[in-house]
Design goal:
This protein is α+β, with helices and mostly antiparallel strands. About 25% of the residues lie in helices and about 30% in strands. It has a 7-stranded mixed β-sheet.
């Protein structure tokens, strides 16, 4: 009995081109392997491009929101209120344009105790705010052109469309989380410090 295990002299059915030693010219020696490698390489390049495209779309998506408006983090400014209990600082968003003022704090589900929104006007004018599409109670502080508080609407009710008038000319309106003015002892006549008001 002749043993052919490990010998190239064995039956031809045992010998296969796939078992030939690797050479530098594997494309010419084994066209099937070459096609397989090309297919895998192509699939890999397609996958890479799909990943890059998804990453690009995700990055673009971060810069957009409903209506195509930028989702960039709002720029915050410091507002300081001086009351009989001392000074309190708030980090506020500025609503200066008609669109910003019309939107205000609508649809916000919460407002941190040290946050708020300051509505600014180019010239003194009477104002009346309402709570349409506003989900949380707010304190609305109307501020005279000299920086003193004219009046305060405390805990304005969410969704209430009743106009809440200032009672006089104002240059700014500060909105805070409902109840904060009472907690801090803020009253009409107290002073608000911000760049739009004259310095004390």
């Amino acid at each position: 009995m002749t043993s052919w295990c490990g010998s190239r002299e064995g039956p031809r059915a045992w010998w296969s081109p796939r078992l030939r030693p690797a050479t530098s010219d594997f494309r010419r020696l084994d066209p099937e392997a070459s096609l397989g490698r090309d297919w895998l390489s192509t699939r890999w390049r397609v996958a890479e491009r799909m990943i890059e495209r998804r990453a690009l779309l995700a990055a673009l998506g971060l810069g957009l929101c409903v209506g195509g408006e930028a989702l960039a983090a709002p720029k915050l400014e410091t507002v300081e209120v001086i009351s009989s209990r001392g000074r309190t600082r708030f980090q506020v968003e500025i609503a200066a344009t008609p669109a910003e003022q019309a939107r205000g704090l609508m649809f916000r589900k919460s407002l941190a105790p040290d946050r708020g929104m300051l509505f600014t006007y180019k010239r003194p004018q009477p104002a009346a705010y309402w709570m349409k599409n506003t989900l949380i109670p707010l304190d609305i502080i109307y501020i005279r052109p000299d920086g003193t508080i004219l009046s305060i609407v405390r805990n304005a009710r969410p969704h209430d469309e009743t106009p809440l008038p200032s009672g006089g000319l104002v240059l700014g309106v500060l909105e805070l989380a409902g109840g904060r003015a009472a907690q801090l002892g803020i009253l009409p006549g107290d002073r608000v410090l911000h760049r739009i008001f004259p310095k004390v």
